[in-house]
Specification:
globular, 9 strands, 273 residues, alpha/beta, 38% helix, Rossmann fold, 2 domains, single chain
């Protein structure tokens, strides 16, 4: 009888631990490619979580920054492997302080209240690279790895040769305003991710980028190639998959296996920030 009580107690304890990751998320429930998706607000900010059918050991998750649902093949493959997929709206904030505040709150919510891993993989596509890197630089020990897909790494490459009245400034107006920058201040800006990679290298955060070398929107040489040179000089590790002749679109890879394998391999990094 005593042994039976211990068995029941153990079952309840294990069940309690497991249910933490399976705790029902709030908001509207819907189907996303065969998986359960939950849409809700956290402190007035639109958030989204997709749950796997079976949760992998350690409750891993991938955190998409922008452009929800665009080329989702990596996330779908990770869902099959037991990852959650998460999203917190930071559109039009361009990785500024408010965007980081929103991400801090969402991270706290998912890790403290739902028991997800304290080291998510981050996915930054195009301008989503801004919040991914700006947040990771402030929290280098809270990241398992970073997957950048043709990510923008800074504003200086766009304004280096710009002058007042240049049409390019209208396309950059939201970016400049989000950070309170004038054209001259943008030219002298030293808080781009390209200038602040040391914390990530010191924390040994592995990076993988997928880019086209003919990207017309986020030029490869000025963004990913320059980041790779700087990161490696700092002792950091980065894998770059270059699509020869590739432009900004399409993103990702038709077969995302190299990306998925990279993320899964680095999910085993210590889960103690």
């Amino acid at each position: 009888m005593l042994n039976l009580r211990y068995i029941v107690l153990l079952f309840l304890l294990v069940g309690g631990i497991t249910s933490r990751s399976w705790a029902t998320f709030p908001g509207a429930k819907s189907d996303w490619h065969g998986f359960e998706r939950f849409d809700f607000e956290l402190d007035g900010v639109a958030c989204r979580v997709v749950t796997p059918k079976s949760v992998a050991t350690g409750n891993p998750w991938i955190w998409r920054a922008r452009f929800w649902g665009h080329e989702p093949q990596t996330e779908l493959a990770l869902l099959e492997k037991g990852f959650h997929v998460a999203y917190c709206d930071v559109a039009d904030l361009w990785g500024n302080a408010e965007a980081i505040r929103r991400w801090d709150r969402f991270y706290e919510y998912l890790t403290d209240e739902h028991g997800l891993s304290r080291r998510p993989a981050l996915l930054g596509m195009s301008r989503g690279g801004l919040i991914v890197y700006h947040w990771a630089i402030q929290h280098p020990h809270q990241v398992s790895c970073i997957y950048g897909d043709a990510p923008a790494m800074g504003i200086r490459p766009y304004v280096r040769n710009a002058m007042e009245g240049d049409p390019v400034l209208e396309r950059l107006r939201g970016w400049l305003d989000a950070h309170g920058l004038t054209l001259q201040a943008a030219k002298e800006y030293k808080l781009d991710a390209l200038d602040r990679l040391a914390p990530l290298a010191a924390a040994k955060v592995p990076l993988i980028h997928v880019c086209g070398d003919a990207d017309e929107a986020v030029p490869y040489e000025e963004h990913t190639a320059e980041l790779a040179r700087r990161y490696e000089r700092l002792g950091g590790a980065i894998k770059v998959i270059v699509k020869k002749g590739g432009k900004h679109h399409p993103h990702s890879l038709k077969d995302p296996t190299p990306i998925v394998d990279f993320i899964v391999a680095h999910q085993t990094r210590s889960d103690s920030p």
